[in-house]
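Title: Prediction job returns without error message
Component: structure pipeline
Severity: low
Priority: P3
Assignee: unassigned

Description:
Job completed but the reporter wants confirmation the result is attached to the right record. Sequence as submitted:
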Amino acid sequence: MSINANSLTVNLLVTAFMALMVFVMPWADRKICAKLGLNLNGGISKNKRADALLRLRQSILLGIFLIYLAAIAWIVFFSRSASSEYLVHVALFQDLTNAVQIDFGILNVIPAIFREGPVSALRHIRVISPANIAQVYMNVMLFIPLGYLLPYVFSWFRAKPETRPLPVCFLASLAIENIQLISKRGFYDADDLISNTLGGFIGQVLFISVAYVVTHPNWRKDLKSYRRWKRNAKKRTLYPFARRIGLSRTTLLASREEDVWDFYVNKMGFRLKKQIVPLNASGTDFLLEMGKSQVEIRCSNREEALPPQSLTISAKRIVTIKKRLEANGIQVGSFEQDVYTGARMLRFSGPDGVQIKVLEA
């Protein structure tokens, strides 16, 4: 990606825009949402029109993201004319080599700092091309918004902001370089891949350290709890497998086979995975499935008092779920707030008094 970034004014404007996006946007977002009575952490909002306003907020954030993509497209493709030949530049760190003269080579800077001390080592570094430094700086700055906005705008990236944005930033830079090469608008530059990916990484770190902190006031408490758990759990059985473990099956007891079929299959929409009739028994065992989650129901087929039971389901688009439950004849109460997570929750009853909760993910 090659743009004319020699102007100090351009560099200052881009830096100011990054600062506004990183530091002002989350602060303003939180203040506006708090004034409108909107809960950004998934809990119950005070505003009766919260769902519509939150959708509007998401649309505004998506609009900001699309404007950023349009700006990137203009800078890297449409602001320049096509050249007459294909240009490829694969020498690593060539931009920095052209910008800075280092007596002992760029790869030996860090060893020299430890060997001679920072002051003595810096004497061997001289700036010979400020324009090339500005070029590298701009390539880094252009991708900071991508690493920052991906988790800010999209929940899939926000679920794992420490790992998911960076590969997308690298792939986006790789796509840009290849399109520039094919269209002859610019040239394929390996240094740009490094600079762009570094910018995406910085944006990702800024989201975690700034945007998340501003919009989650309890982050210190959560971090302390996580560190305490991690310190104590390292020697426990399941810790090495924590990221690969999921609770996939819940077991319930039921008394009437007809009720199980009508409620869980016909109304809730579970799929019958398997049905087993044990030998020398009047009961029936069902294994029901919804995506990766399974519910085992052991039905006795006789009238009997069963102990209190509950089933908790985690899902998105909880407002739509509420409407679909009511459309299928299931009586659902008003939204409640989960006492553990603060997220919105629906509560309704199933056969044999089973208390079912739908927790907003």
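Comment from assignee: result matches the submitted record. The chain has a mean pLDDT of 85.
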